[in-house]
Specification:
The structure is a single chain. By secondary structure, the protein is an alpha/beta fold. Helices cover 18% and strands 25% of the residues. The protein has 6 helices and 17 strands. Strand 5 and strand 6 form a beta hairpin. Helix 3 packs parallel to helix 4. The two termini are 25 Å apart. The structure holds fe (ii) ion. The site of fe (ii) ion has 7 residues, from loops.
């Protein structure tokens, strides 16, 4: 890591104000849609969802805590509806994988969150390419919110190369492929070394193009995927405006599936990745497919806006239940996790 200074939160001077990464893939949408087999979102049998209170008897390192994962939010009615869904589902923390309001308006973006979820709601974010221009302002809002979140601790440069802990969850908020000077694989390896929490999350905005199903062209360093996999950390991304989730993977660079079973058994060397990019801005079509996908939910599957929800730490500390729900109440994906840290 070249920028080694621990410039927590308010040290905005740490922000790389450079490199307004262009979203070239978005400009390349004119290409003809490739023909892939039609399929409905994968219908994994719905598990019995554990009760979220009173069900845990064993000592636990995490939760239960219910998290919502979103990205690519926008600032219109769909963004508001998605936040309202998050509130209605009883999520206790939001992880935003970047691309906030697309308006470079930190005040309005933060204001909408405050209006729907409240000013002290635990809301953590990774920088997106559309957040770079006004990033100091967004980071300042996130840092101010962090101070109001009881029990949350972060170090590093918040949202670009940072590690946070909250209610037993350990999450790395990063700007992979945006902050070009950072050694993200090295950072992940260092931060995850010796980590014993069953619930580790790597959060960044831009997926490798083979780890999304749209027409993004980003060829990012597989090292970030493999280091998170080595740690057994969940990989949360956005950028493509659809939802897709891999099976349990044993290598991302070669798209090798470890297992298609449910629950997914996370351990060192085994994890999954997802794109949750239906936060409100737009809904895009499916252009790619592959045997490593467990669930695909795009315009082709008539997707609507929504969020991925995971309840970590129930009914036991190393168990979790997840589902993607849209603002119409439809649930196109459900799965369970067991983590062996
Ligand atoms: Fe993006």
């Amino acid at each position: 890591m070249k920028r080694t200074t621990l410039c927590l939160a308010v040290a905005l001077s740490c922000v790389a104000a450079s490199a307004f990464a262009s979203d070239s893939a978005e400009a390349a949408r004119s290409g003809a849609e490739r023909s892939f087999r039609d399929r409905d979102p994968r219908g994994i049998p719905a598990p019995e969802f554990p009760k979220e209170s009173g069900a845990v008897s064993a000592p636990r390192a995490a939760g239960p805590v219910k998290a919502a994962f979103i990205g690519d939010q926008g600032n219109g009615a769909a963004a508001r509806a998605t936040l309202q869904l998050i509130k209605a589902e009883g999520a206790e923390v939001v992880f935003h994988q970047g691309d906030f309001d697309y308006k470079d308006n930190p005040e309005a973006w933060d204001g909408l969150i405050n209006e729907v979820l409240g000013p002290s709601f635990p809301y953590f974010a990774s920088v997106g390419n559309h957040d770079m221009k006004a990033w100091p302002g967004y980071q300042q809002k996130l840092a101010a919110r962090l101070k109001r979140i009881s029990g949350a601790v972060c170090d590093g440069d918040l949202g670009t190369i940072s590690t946070c802990r909250y209610r037993g969850l350990v999450f790395l908020l990063m700007g992979v492929d945006l902050m070009k000077n950072n050694d993200y694989p090295g950072y992940i390896r260092k931060q995850m070394a010796g980590e014993t929490s069953p619930w580790k999350i790597c959060s960044w905005h831009i997926p490798h193009y083979l780890m999304q199903v749209g027409n993004k062209k980003n060829v990012i360093d597989w090292g970030v995927y493999e280091e998170c996999r080595n740690a057994g950390a969940i990989i949360a991304t956005g950028h493509e405006h659809s939802y897709s989730r891999t099976r349990l993977m044993k290598e991302f660079a070669t798209q090798q599936v470890a297992s298609s079973d449910n629950p997914l058994r996370l351990e060192k060397g085994r994890t999954f990745a997802f794109v949750s990019g239906l936060g409100g801005d737009s809904i895009r079509n499916q252009f790619l497919d592959g045997a490593w996908w467990a669930s695909v939910y795009t315009a082709k599957q008539k997707a609507n806006y929504g969020a991925l929800f995971c309840t970590f730490g129930a009914p036991t500390a190393n168990a979790a239940s997840c589902y993607f729900k849209n603002i119409d109440g439809r649930i196109p994906d459900r799965f369970d996790l067991l983590s062996q840290p």
